[in-house]
């Protein structure tokens, strides 16, 4: 597939004369061509769209008159190119399903997402790309376009070139009552909330599952199904029976059961907050339990402005546990969100890797220091 490029608004004779004052265009033409020949093809095409002078130089030499993306360019490179092309366009977002720029709609937010049937390419996410949606709980549906637009609007608003109306809508908190057989019988009252936030150019979301006593005290089986990410999940049957064996071949706790172990520790020691982290994606979580109230919180980092090929995003979207994994300091996302761990206790004694967000390939080793610590 070849993508035709649309010229940037405002390009013309006046802008070409303004660009003649740039340091790059003061260099000899042969040196500009030599520099341009060392960068990737998408970057060459983007440079040719910046002004008429560069377009004339690059199209006559490096691009040889062909200012279209080649058909053999990978989808990842096409997405990166379109993302760079739309950096200064707050009203457009990159659709990686059809590899086009789509207009943004003010009413399209994670708390009130627009029906995918009304998007220009018709049902994105049901074709080649299945990882455009990573979070859908109780009406809060986070699509990659929401993350892309929120980070772009935050960056442009910080530079003073854009208002914050749509950004505030994208970051609007979401609250929903949880409907289950336990809430319908009024045994407990349960709510779900999501609070998006942009911090240091990263898109963060804090989610909270809150269970309060109704006609009965909060029991473990009343939690129903609680999923914090694609890897950490507890169900009523798991909490009630604790799944029997919670160990791998090395007789150590498996990281997939981190949330389950934290919940068990919280019920064993009421009133104490136990924290943990998912070793397969950017998620910190905590569990605090008592007969009157159980609260499960998660702090999720969806990464900086980028495409769905970014490892931060893919760690949330992927359901294959042997893909790239985030090794980081426990509690780093919670602190980045602006909340201190306080007196929270760690339910897992997993060793941390020094630094923050050090990416490694494959699954982390399970053989060292992962037993539950309660004191």
UniProtKB/TrEMBL annotation:
Cross-referenced InterPro entries: F-box-like_dom_sf
Entry superkingdom: Eukaryota
Stated name of the protein: F-box domain-containing protein
């Amino acid at each position: 597939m070849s993508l035709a490029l649309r010229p940037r608004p405002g390009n013309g004779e006046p802008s070409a004369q303004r660009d003649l004052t740039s340091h790059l265009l003061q260099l000899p033409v042969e040196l500009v061509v030599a520099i341009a020949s060392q960068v990737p093809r998408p970057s060459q095409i983007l440079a040719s769209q910046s002004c008429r002078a560069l377009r004339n130089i690059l199209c006559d030499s490096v691009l040889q008159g062909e200012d279209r993306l080649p058909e053999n360019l990978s989808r990842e490179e096409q997405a990166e190119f379109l993302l760079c092309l739309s950096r200064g366009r707050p009203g457009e977002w990159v659709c990686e399903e059809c590899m086009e720029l789509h207009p943004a709609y003010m009413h399209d937010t994670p708390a009130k997402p627009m029906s995918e049937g009304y998007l220009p390419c018709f049902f994105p996410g049901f074709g080649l790309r299945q990882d455009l949606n990573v979070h859908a709980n109780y009406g809060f549906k986070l699509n990659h376009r929401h993350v892309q637009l929120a980070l772009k609007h935050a960056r442009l608003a910080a530079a003073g070139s854009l208002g914050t109306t749509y950004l505030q809508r994208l970051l609007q908190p979401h609250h929903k009552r949880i409907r289950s057989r336990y809430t319908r019988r009024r045994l407990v009252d349960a709510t779900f909330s999501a609070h998006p936030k942009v911090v240091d150019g990263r898109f963060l979301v804090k989610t909270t599952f809150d269970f309060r006593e109704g006609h009965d005290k909060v029991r473990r089986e009343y939690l129903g199904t609680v999923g914090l990410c694609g890897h950490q999940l507890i169900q009523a049957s798991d909490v009630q029976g604790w799944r029997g064996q919670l160990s791998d071949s090395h007789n150590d706790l498996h990281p997939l059961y981190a949330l389950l172990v934290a919940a068990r520790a919280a019920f064993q020691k009421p009133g104490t907050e136990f924290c943990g982290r998912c070793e397969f994606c950017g998620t910190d979580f905590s569990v605090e339990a008592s007969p009157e109230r159980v609260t499960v919180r998660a702090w999720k980092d969806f990464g900086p402005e980028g495409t769905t090929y970014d490892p931060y995003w893919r760690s949330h979207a992927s359901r294959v546990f042997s893909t790239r994994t985030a090794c980081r300091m426990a509690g780093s996302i919670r602190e980045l969100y602006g909340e201190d761990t306080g007196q929270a206790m760690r339910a897992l004694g997993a060793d941390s890797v020094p630094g923050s967000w050090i990416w490694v390939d494959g699954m982390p080793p399970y053989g060292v220091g992962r037993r539950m610590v309660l004191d």
